[in-house]
Write a structure and sequence with these properties.
The protein is an alpha/beta fold. The chain contains 20 helices and eleven strands. The strands form two sheets. Strands 4-3-7-2-8-1-9-10-11 form a nine-stranded mixed sheet, sandwiched between helices. Strand 9, helix 5 and strand 10 form a beta-alpha-beta unit. Helix 7 packs antiparallel against helix 12, helix 11 packs across helix 12 and helix 16 packs across helix 20. The longest helix is centred in the middle third of the chain and has 24 residues. It is globular, with a radius of gyration of 25 Å. The two termini are 15 Å apart.
Length: 489
């Protein structure tokens, strides 16, 4: 169902052997081969102050990325899993130096010392975090920065001239949907997905709690905004999903302290009218002269770490019966939308990591062979392009993106089944077929064979439009792939 990394490795090795003396080509191909063995690279991109660093911290569950607008936030920063923490700045082309990690006033920052952002090529952050075991996260400067040089750093990493993108997949944060966002997403898609379109681009309505001005129904408003963005973006094929996330709330929930839980419990005991009057604004909530059973300093901390929406949500959950810190944290994470984003990332990126890495390697290989032609290049190019064209998993990803627009002329239940069969809920055989996880191989074969026949029959319906026919044929091919895998058991 997915491109075999071994097949791609062998093809890259054959290409390297065809350049016995060309050091430039060999260097680029060596990097291509090494990338196949790395974790999947996922870049966070978006406009200035979209909340990329906050979302990164929430995703990892630790405060490891600076969120204040300092020199380090103007530099592309790579976050990788490691045994011990280390931060390194690479600057002036071939030089590097350790970076001091500081926490002034409790906020993490990287002290570049005498270095300025314009001299730093990138920052590498090695950090022990389970979330980074299978995924390298790349935090990029804002694409709408007033400094064109800062925006160019993100473009150079994601959409370099005559080279493959530095990321295998992209999470793009939106606060609005401007023409510049659409243009930038188009450029990302062309590089991440090659000429055939984006394979791994997910949109996020960031700081989603602010869409509803921190009201209790803020996330409902954000979901409506996400649906509108999704219909506009996915109709163009620029991304495969758009989800709302309140990154600040997610981070606060994942790092919830006992003192904060105790403060929420105390606030939950305050009469609703009195509490509502105190929470007309964040500034009012943090005032020392407001009579509440939590001191002003701690209230200001809550507002800074959770926002008004997070505070209201925590109090509501406690009033509904949540009585311990872990349960409150879990409830707040769910409300923040982070779980939904992680599910999308797992299905779109995590479960298809080998496929996305193989695609990045094939696109890189294709460009090297075209730039450095040899006698063997034509045959190698044919094989690389055949793999790019024939790997069905790539077609599934593109079709999943199109299906979210509702373009297929099928009933809702059939659309759900189609989405499932294409791997929209997971790429395991049982997940694709909607069967129990412990279903026997024989039962799975029966289900897969029935799916092949059903979707072939749908594709042959004379009244279907061309896109729906293509979607049905893609589903039939997916079911055939399940059968092929089961045949190997």
């Amino acid at each position: 169902m997915t491109a075999s990394l071994e097949r791609v490795r062998r093809l890259v090795a054959s290409a390297r052997a065809s350049y016995p003396t060309d050091s430039d080509a060999r260097t680029r191909l060596a990097a291509c081969a090494a990338r196949l063995d790395e974790p999947l690279r996922v870049a966070l991109a978006g406009s200035l102050k979209a909340g990329k660093s906050t979302l990164l911290n929430a995703f990892v569950g630790q405060d490891i990325a600076p969120t204040d607008a300092t020199e380090c936030t103007r530099v592309v920063t790579w976050y990788r899993n490691a045994v011990t923490p280390a931060v390194t700045a690479h600057y002036d082309g071939d030089r590097s130096a350790p970076v001091t990690v500081q926490r002034p006033a409790g906020r993490l920052t990287f002290d570049l010392g005498a270095l300025t952002a314009d001299r730093v090529d990138r920052i590498d952050v090695d950090w022990p975090a389970s979330a980074l075991t299978r995924t390298t996260i790349i935090d990029t400067p804002g694409t709408s920065s007033l400094s064109t040089d800062v925006s160019a750093r993100t473009l150079d990493m994601l959409t370099p001239e005559n080279a493959v993108s530095g990321a295998d997949a992209v999470v793009y944060l939106l606060r609005s949907l401007s023409a510049s966002d659409v243009q930038f997403l188009g450029r990302i898609g062309a590089h991440v997905g090659g000429e055939s379109g984006p394979l791994g681009v997910v949109g996020v309505v960031s700081r989603a709690d602010e869409v509803g001005a921190g009201r209790a129904d803020a996330m409902l408003s954000a979901k409506d905004v996400a649906a509108r963005f999704a219909s506009e973006l996915e109709a163009t094929g620029l991304c495969q999903a758009v989800v709302p996330v309140a990154g600040l709330l997610a981070l606060g929930a994942r790092t919830l302290r006992h003192s904060e839980f105790a403060a929420f419990e105390a606030l939950a005991a305050v009469p609703s009218e009195q509490l509502s009057a105190a929470m007309l604004s964040a500034d009012r909530f943090g005032r020392d002269d407001i009579a509440l059973p939590v001191d002003g300093a701690l209230r200001r901390q809550l507002a800074d770490r959770f926002g008004l929406f997070g505070i209201r949500s925590a109090i509501t959950l406690i009033r509904l019966g949540v009585h311990d810190s872990p349960s409150l944290a879990a409830g707040l994470v769910q409300l923040s939308g982070l779980d939904g984003l992680r599910q999308v990332i797992d299905i779109q990126f995590g479960q298809r990591a080998d496929q996305l890495k193989a695609h990045s390697a094939l696109v890189a290989l294709e460009r090297v062979l075209a730039a450095y032609p040899t006698q063997q290049s034509p045959d190698l190019l044919v094989e690389a392009r055949r793999l790019l064209a024939d790997v069905h998993g790539f077609a599934e990803l593109r079709m999943l993106g199109r299906l979210r627009t509702g373009d297929a002329g099928l009933p809702p239940d059939d659309l759900t089944e189609l989405h499932r069969l294409l791997g929209g809920f997971g790429i395991g055989a049982a997940q694709r077929l909607g069967l129990a996880p412990d279903a026997s191989p024989d039962f799975l074969r029966v289900g897969a064979l029935a799916a092949v026949r059903a979707w072939r029959a749908r594709a042959d319906h004379p009244l279907l439009d061309p896109f729906t026919v293509r979607a049905c044929r893609t589903a039939a091919r997916s079911a055939e792939g399940v059968l092929a895998e089961l045949g190997e058991l």
